[in-house]
């Protein structure tokens, strides 16, 4: 009995850690929606949600409860299996990436050596959810949204992966914890300074990857009603939202680990090992929201043009320069 | 366009600076049911018939001018002569508020300042009858309104602008408020 317990203990600890991470991440996602509404409200000189609970703090909970109690509608001509599966693919792919992100030196759920690849793979997988939902809904608007999502993913995935190659070259590793350690050991402390172009390309393509303003063409309310999830209702609709915000959190977390020095900070905060990671994460999340409150949506051809003609050449040049410097310096 | 400006995204930076600045400015929201903006004087709200503080009755003399001038024909008046005093008595004075266009002509034309559009605006009804005001309702509307006001109350529409004082009927000229 004791032997079984002893052998099962690491697994149990892992499951416990995964649960903690999931709950914390879900809370973050829920309150990102609240922060987004509040911040955009203030930027537009409105108040934002302030009715549910003190200062509207219970709004995300009320939203989830509302979505849970709504009717779950499946359109008549829809491909049922894919229709049910699509939001889950989006969400699972978005949430799984969290496992490889080193929140702290001693807190990495899965310390895999190809962490960066895992994240890239999962983030492109999450767009399958978008594409499948667009196709399975059997609706023109949703289909157009899905098509746009696929085209967008193809062009921005490349730019994003290439922008991270510079980081891989500098750190000499694809393990995210190793990347953070290499950063703290380097003379700049963070890679955002030597890899400024990579950082820029990554931030832009991360916004496109998570389908957010100004690259929210797949869901473009004004043209496609709501794009790929127009036919979804109730909690399935909520899952798409959750996936979008999970994507946002994951992308910000990747940017923090790869460019901003992860958990390392200018000084140690006693008792709060996650402090610097979270501060950086919140700054980036605020940036996402800030951009959303400011910029109008790109036109479709401009979006493709930006991806192929600006971001990909930029990141390729960045890789070249980084590689040459690495060789000679 | 200056290529340097394009490269460093100055326009986008300007936009971001604007939204950031606005984030620290005061929101313009009025939290309506709890917080109300003061009504402009002469706001044309719920209809009322002025109750004369001396007699305690309506001031209306039944001249029908309001009914005639009303563009949406929503005022219905019936009068009769008191057989003893030979005076005109208003038997019925109804305003169908749902048809009213709130032009305020009735208050301008009324020679004795008897009809008024009060500054009270929260009077939604659940049935059509709720917004069909008969004489008693109109007087009651006045009572409800006047307690919220400083006395003497004078509605700006009672002396229409642009008409010389000498051409106004005598009671209107002399009126100084209720």
From TrEMBL, chain A:
GO terms for cellular component: plasma membrane. The chain crosses the membrane at residues 12-34, 82-104, 110-132, 153-176, 188-208, 245-265, 271-291, 303-325. It is an enzyme of class 7 (translocase). GO terms for molecular function: NADH dehydrogenase activity; oxidoreductase activity, acting on NAD(P)H, quinone or similar compound as acceptor; quinone binding. The keyword Membrane applies. Its main location: membrane. The keyword Translocase applies. Its EC number is 7.1.1.-. Keywords: Cell membrane, Membrane, NAD, Oxidoreductase, Quinone, Translocase, Transmembrane, Transmembrane helix, Ubiquinone. It is found in: Cell membrane; Membrane. It catalyses: a quinone + NADH + 5 H(+)(in) = a quinol + NAD(+) + 4 H(+)(out). PROSITE patterns: COMPLEX1_ND1_2. GO terms for biological process: aerobic respiration. Belongs to the complex I subunit 1 family. NDH-1 is composed of 14 different subunits. Subunits NuoA, H, J, K, L, M, N constitute the membrane sector of the complex. NCBIfam families: PRK06076.1-2. PANTHER family: NADH DEHYDROGENASE SUBUNIT 1, NADH-UBIQUINONE OXIDOREDUCTASE CHAIN 1. This is NADH-quinone oxidoreductase subunit H. It comes from Thermosulfurimonas marina. The lineage of its organism: Bacteria, Pseudomonadati, Thermodesulfobacteriota, Thermodesulfobacteria, Thermodesulfobacteriales. The gene is nuoH.
From TrEMBL, chain B:
Its cofactor is [4Fe-4S] cluster. One of its GO terms (cellular component) is plasma membrane. It is found in: Cell membrane. GO terms for molecular function: 4 iron, 4 sulfur cluster binding; iron ion binding; NADH dehydrogenase (quinone) (non-electrogenic) activity; quinone binding. [4Fe-4S] cluster 1 binds at residues 60, 63, 66, 110. It is a peripheral membrane protein. Its main location: membrane. NDH-1 shuttles electrons from NADH, via FMN and iron-sulfur (Fe-S) centers, to quinones in the respiratory chain. The immediate electron acceptor for the enzyme in this species is believed to be ubiquinone. Couples the redox reaction to proton translocation (for every two electrons transferred, four hydrogen ions are translocated across the cytoplasmic membrane), and thus conserves the redox energy in a proton gradient. NCBIfam families: NuoI, PRK05888.1-4. This is NADH-quinone oxidoreductase subunit I. It comes from Thermosulfurimonas marina. The gene is nuoI.
């Amino acid at each position: 009995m004791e032997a079984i317990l002893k052998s099962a203990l690491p697994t149990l600890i892992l499951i416990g850690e995964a649960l903690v991470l999931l709950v914390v991440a879900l809370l973050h996602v829920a309150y990102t929606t609240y922060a987004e509404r509040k911040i955009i409200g203030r930027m537009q000189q409105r108040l934002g949600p302030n009715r549910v609970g003190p200062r509207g703090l219970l709004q995300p909970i009320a939203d989830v409860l509302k979505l849970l109690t709504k009717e779950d509608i499946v359109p008549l001509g829809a491909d049922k299996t894919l229709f049910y599966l699509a939001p889950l693919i989006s969400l699972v792919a978005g949430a799984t990436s969290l496992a490889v992100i080193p929140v702290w030196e001693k807190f990495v759920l899965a310390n895999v050596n190809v962490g960066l690849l895992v994240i890239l793979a999962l983030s492109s997988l999450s767009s399958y959810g978008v594409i499948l939902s667009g196709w399975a809904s059997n609706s023109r608007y949703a289909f157009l949204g899905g098509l746009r999502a696929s085209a967008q993913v193809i062009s921005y995935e490349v730019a994003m992966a290439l922008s991270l190659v510079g980081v891989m070259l500098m750190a000499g590793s694809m393990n995210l914890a190793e990347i953070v350690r290499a950063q703290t050991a380097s003379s700049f402390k963070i890679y955002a300074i030597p890899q400024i172009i990579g950082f820029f390309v990554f931030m832009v393509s991360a916004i496109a990857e998570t389908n957010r303003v100004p690259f929210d063409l797949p869901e473009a309310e004004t043209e496609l009603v709501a794009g790929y999830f127009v036919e979804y209702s109730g909690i399935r609709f909520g899952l798409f939202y959750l996936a979008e915000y999970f994507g946002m959190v994951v992308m910000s977390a990747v940017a923090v680990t790869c460019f901003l020095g992860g958990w390392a900070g200018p000084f140690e905060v006693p008792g709060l090992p996650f402090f610097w990671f979270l501060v950086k994460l919140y700054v980036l999340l605020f940036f996402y929201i800030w951009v959303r409150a400011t910029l109008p949506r790109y036109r479709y051809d401009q979006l493709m043009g930006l991806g192929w003609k600006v971001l990909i050449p930029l990141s390729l040049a960045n890789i070249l320069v980084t590689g040459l410097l690495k060789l000679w310096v | 366009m200056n290529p340097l400006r394009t490269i460093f995204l100055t326009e986008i930076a300007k936009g971001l600076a604007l939204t950031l600045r606005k984030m620290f400015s005061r929101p313009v929201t009025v939290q309506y049911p709890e917080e109300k903006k003061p009504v402009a004087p002469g706001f044309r709200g719920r209809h009322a018939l002025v109750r004369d503080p001396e007699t305690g009755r309506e001031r209306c003399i039944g001249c029908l001018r309001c009914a005639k001038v009303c563009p949406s024909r929503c005022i219905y008046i019936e009068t009769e002569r008191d057989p003893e005093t030979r005076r005109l008595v208003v038997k019925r004075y109804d305003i169908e508020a749902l048809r009213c266009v709130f032009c305020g002509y009735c208050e301008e034309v009324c020679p004795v300042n008897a009809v008024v559009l009060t500054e009270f605006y929260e009077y939604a009804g659940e049935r059509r009858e709720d917004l069909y005001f008969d004489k008693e309702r109109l007087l009651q509307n006045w009572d409800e309104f006047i307690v919220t006001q400083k006395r003497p109350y004078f509605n700006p529409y009672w002396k229409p602008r642009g008409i010389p004082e000498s051409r106004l009927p005598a009671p209107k000229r002399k009126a100084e408020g209720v």
